[in-house]
Write a structure and sequence with these properties.
The protein contains 4 helices and 5 strands; from the N terminus they run E-H-E-H-E-H-E-E-H. The protein is α/β, with parallel strands linked by helices.
Length: 107
Amino acid sequence: MGSLVKEINESEFDAEVLSASTPVVVDFWAPWCGPCRLVAPEIEKLAAKHGDTVKFVKVNVDDNRDIAIRYGIMSIPTIAKFERGQVVAQVIGARGADALAKEFGLA
């Protein structure tokens, strides 16, 4: 089974996140980040449960530094919820699916 969380790059960010008609949860991560690997399956769980109303994407900050700089991503994982092109909630660090759902109003 493929991932429910689409990996996007800088050229796709505006269309996939900022112009989205639904809320978007963005996982800012890097391949070398241990906590990022721990939180990835938790975000997949959220996508499986809430994917009909919320879009889930991930951005590799090593490959897309300009996006990380634009949103002040200093620590990873940082998971942000965007609505109408604006960050409305943000969590820094690995959390379980239930905690993320609560932070993002998905519970």
